[in-house]
Write the structure tokens for this entry.
Amino acid sequence: MENPTTPSLGSVPEKPTIDGLEAAWVPRWNEKNVYGFDATATRDQVFSIDTPPPTVSGSLHIGHVFSYTHADAIARFQRMRGRKVFYPMGWDDNGLPTERRVENFFGVRCDPSLPYDPSFEPPAKPGDQKISISRKNFVELCQRLTATDEEVFKELWQRLGLSVDWKLEYSTISAHAQEVSQRAFLNMLQRGEVYSSEAPTLWDVDFRTAVSQAELEDRERPGAYHRVRFERSDGIGGIDIETTRPELLPSCVALVAHPDDARYQPLFGTTVRTPLFQVEVPVVAHELADPEKGSGIAMICTFGDTTDVTWWRELRLPTRALIGRDGRFLPSADFGGDQWPCADVAAANENYAQLAGKSANQARTAIVELLTTSGALIGEPRPITHPVKFYEKGDRPLEIVTSRQWFVATMPHREALLARGEELNWHPDFMKHRFKSWVEGLNGDWCISRQRYFGVPFPVWYRIDGDGIINFDEPIVAEAASLPIDPSSDCPPGFAEPQRGQAGGFIGDPDVMDTWATSSLTPQIAGHWGTDLFERVFPMDLRPQAHEIIRTWLFSTVVRSHLEFNSLPFTNAAISGWILDPDRKKMSKSVGNVVTPMGLLDTHGSDAVRYWAASGRPGTDTAFDEAQMKIGRRLAIKVLNASKFALGRLEGAPIPGVDAITQPLDRDMVAALGQLIDETTKAFEQYDYARALERTEQFFWAFCDDYIELVKIRAYRTESPAETASARASLALALSVLQRLLAPFLPFVTEEVWSWWHADSVHLAEWPTRDELGTAGDPNGSYEAVRDALAAVRREKTTSKVSMRAEVELVTVTNDAATIERLRRAEEDLKDAGAVRTVAYVEGAANYVVTLAPPAES
RNA sequence: GGGCGCUUAGCUCAGUUGGUUAGAGCGCAGCCUUCACACGGCUGAGGCCGAGGGUUCGAGUCCCCCAGCGCCCA
């Protein structure tokens, strides 16, 4: 390595401190465009990162700091290796979380039927009663709030030291992101990969929107098995079924048992009558029926759960849906209609009247009463606890409601998607199983439409025929050049605004896209799909993210890229773990709210918090541990002090090159340094930042505690120029290498100390290589042998309760010949570091006898 | 029910193709008012590597089985 500089330490503070380094360096990095992407770089020179866009309406928690630090360490490593790093930051502002926050923050509610009010201003303080506003007004408030959220997030990210190129900032609600979303949607439509259909869909009755399988979660809820008797149509006996949802009895379309179930085999093909409603339903066979569950025979209703939907579809059963979009039973049912044969319509309607307008819970109470009275309820309901499907952000169990939705046809591509999962490099590798089991468990196409307001609209309209019937099958698509459009305010080609909603006219698609339908396009959005830039960054090199969104973000991105480009969207996925409470439980809200990321950065310093984060191994859940941050802080301070001291030894004269490294101790230390470079480089190449940090840290402390101590006097000594030069060259080399190896983890303190002897940023310096060591490295065992002897001297001083500066009269080293030779060649260093006067050597089993000098007369 | 991961010192964790007396940090104890660092330094005491079985000259490391914890999927 060349060291043309003569350190001039005029800029080194007398008492250096790590406090305030963030405030000093963030603006300078911005000014000097240290992290700017070189948009002229060719694809092979680029390292591109598909940064997760955080949901801005949520607050950033410590888990974000954790995983974003991991990605940043990798970005910094790649940048120092000479790659042109494409590291954007996006904001995910679409979707329900933002809507909810806007409703609460401003005290408003969206009513799409209202006209836009350009002069609307929300009240200074939200009132008890929410104000209804138009969709456009609502969206404006969403944008206003997310804009301020984004500023707060950006400040935190900069403070944390993320080496993002802020010129590449994007948001998922921007016109650009909308344009990309709509274009990608239209491409899929053209290729037949997306379709709309009136079908049973998972439905949240509070948000009144469809949700997708990826947004489900099971929650254990109390319920009860109700044993209900159906009378056989032939009049010879009844069949008892068990159900947790007796209120769906009027929606019953069949009974089902396993085809191999001998108890029910004779009944397949026969019919039974539902109690209370006297509807004749068949007894059918299907393998999904569980003989172990309840009485082994179940009622199929349209629709109680997703299994009902499967049975309904595969067995071609009629539809008798009775739950509305508000989760309440419809006002009436068509008993006796074409699809609804009924032996006693009057009784059925009378009983149904007890359910009409009620919620599921209320209806359950009512029907249990009716069943009890009629004698069809056998025994008492048996309480159980069972998993119930919820929308992850919802408070009431999901219903299944038939509605028109847009779907991406994922099911035909399952095998191909599984192959994509295999093709992707997962870090750690075992995370691939999450993807695999998710794809294998898919039970339907991906529903991407949401009946919400704040999101990307579908760029289509529908013709209304002369009779006022909407033709959903042949949507009018927006012209590519016009994107992005909002079909609720923009007019389709060939129509005029007055024709909206009129017979013979058109109507816009009312829905918005699922948030994942947009964020699955982050490579296209960030990389400006369609421009020259995209070719330079796609497929991305790295997707860093947490494991909880493998089934959503990672999966959906793979789907979109597979369909659009027939490739993976990124070649590597680095999956971060979760932050757990110190008691190993999932981080609780209460703790997360008390311990804000910004507060931690204030208390410990950004480098310290990053140190804690980078200590968490890839994919491993990590305990929230402020003690670890204190250790990181200590390391940062040590970097500061050790650098100051070492540079002080180098001051005043040119630093010799590596050819000057001639002393065995120095050459052995440099050999170890070379090994460290190999190890950390390899670890980083495998995305194992934690190992790189651990090894570097370990080396660094030994370097400070032992090597600097051993050579600090020699580096000053003038009577033996070669030995002095060797010490000075080695110190400079090791210091330079260590500062650079630590730079991805401790960007602030390393930049500070680097600036004391370099003009350019350490973050643009070259990642250390063995080449720069020249032939200086020579693994000869001296470093370890001398450290061992020094430890023996220190041990004696400690047990004798004297200062480390106390003089030692004699050290008698007993050891094998080779070790003795190593020590002999570094004897002066040992004497310097241990204040030793004489060293004697004896061959034999390893032992040190340290004789302290009598205390000096004072 | 299927799958994945974890179980090593009081705590948090390393331990990369199996190789001599198992490592680090924190904490703890003791010492050192040291001229880079008291936001420090030095030294030390702590472990039959979750249980059982197997392969091997040799197992924390490989195989089988069991248990506990966590997560993913159904």
